[in-house]
Prior knowledge:
The protein is α/β, with parallel strands linked by helices. Helix content is about 20%, strand content about 30%.
Amino acid sequence: MEPRVHRIGVIADTHVPSALRCLPDPLAAALAGVDRIVHAGDLVSLSILDELNAIAPTTAVVGNCDPPEVARRLPARTTVEIAGRRVGIQHGHQSHFLQNQYVAYGYGAPEFDLFYQAMATQLPDADVIVFGHFHAPMVRKWHGILFVNPGSVAPPHARPTFAVLEIGERLIARVNLLA
């Protein structure tokens, strides 16, 4: 018998209602059937949690654009265990001093190691680190940790994206365009 694969919907930067009136209908359809949803911050409205929880149990963190009422309800970072794997979740914004060291470079640049190191330090023992903030999707293994940025559901950056993380014998993450 093959071990069960847990499917996790990964989203970030929904910015509802500041950039979008509501979550796009194709997102709900794309997330149908996942075991859990992880939101890496910048919800902007807590009502998003109700919509997402109607699809699957949802874990979310606060982002730098979230208002005080969201910040009071959500942690800055958290770690959840799924199928024996630890998934760390944090929006990804760092101090301006640190961010200025790498923000002008791409995910693969040596300067970006500062970001990966900061996140790994802030989320110790994570097998996977989910983040948002940059509105640019990526999946990258760094020092044995799988980093996943699902991109942004909200405009104006490129096309809306989300990711699906599969947790089983292996960790697999794929970024998907929202139709």
